[in-house]
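Aim 2 progress update. The chain analyzed this quarter is reproduced below.
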Amino acid sequence: MKAQTEQDICQNINVVDVAIVGGAMAGATLALGLRKLAKDLRRPLKIALIEAHRPDDNHPGFDARSIAVAHGSIFELNRLGIWPKIAHLGTPIENIHISDRGHFGMTELNADDFYIKHLGQVIELEPVGQVLFKQIADTDIELYCPAKLASVEALPDAQLLTLDDGTQLRASLLVAADGVNSKVRQAFKLPLEQVDFDQVAIIANVEVGKPHENWAFERFTDSGPLAILPMAKSKGVNRVSLVWALRPYDAERLMTVPKEAFLAELQQAFGYRAGQFTDVGERHSYPLQLSHMPRPIYHRTVFIGNAAQTLHPIAGQGFNLGLRDLVSLLDVLKQTIETEAGEALDLGCADVIHRYLQSREADRTATMTNIEFLVRGFSNNYWPLVAGRSLALRLLSWLPPLKTPIARSAMGWRASSLKR
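Predicted structure tokens:
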């Protein structure tokens, strides 16, 4: 770590190795991963985490939503020592049923076929946020919360951050984990490319009349995919998590109709394979876009998670891709620390930044391309596409070996992960 200079001390500037802006799933996980890395390598690291909201105060990243954590992501979270702390909050996905509404195409992915206990797990973000911040509080990670980034200035050997209360931090490496509307990206006027899918997602927790038995469902409709994820019971009531992609005018209407009308339309769109939908909780909606930074790096700065790319929720790959961002960054930093053993560390040097960029290019490009292909290919009634996708789904059922690469991708396994 670079020594704090006399000038920094006089100006009351806190010098850190890594400053993370954004403390939701990606940022909090990275902070804990860095702390474990420092402990494992017995190398002191000063880590600062800057977050605008407390996890128990309507945190937008730790709200009532649920996310699917893929099998490969659970492996990585175990490596970081995080999964054992939140495993009790997970609901296993043992089977996935995939269908094309109104057409003959359908298939299944089953954990038993791959000799594993589950394909992934569903976790509710709100309690997970509480656990992660409790872990952070038990470390020497410097947590600035609630605090907002007021400005950031690029210096030759650091990034100078000024918070809304006047606090200043000088960071060798700055990590932006502050979402699609990243303040860091805006401060540096870096480009963000966006593809509008002309869809809006409605997200809600739904009560059902029968146990889900750890089944997840992905049902493609004319307006977009409709996903049902298994959740833990609440007060003895069976629950599932709903993500429903709709045309904007349909979503606007369904956000305001009475519960009974909403459940009736949901039942008609999905069918009864998951049982009778009996009640729905608070409904949330947001427009669906593919947003990504062509180069998620800058001078002494890397962008991870939704700050680097925000995906359509089809196939539930958003968090899992973001987790691979931070795992790749940790791997690059580990190599740097091991190489520079006994020397002064500069974790934000150009070599580190560009090795991170290179490590992410193939996975990011492949995942974003596949997501856009699925959205375009399954959200229309163009008959050649309908016939082709229905046949493809049926072939997966008729020829089980074809499922292996699809299942591996869905479970978040990549070549870099399998080598560890």
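The mean pLDDT is 89. The first strand starts at residue 13 and ends at 21. These observations will guide the mutagenesis experiments scheduled for the next reporting period.
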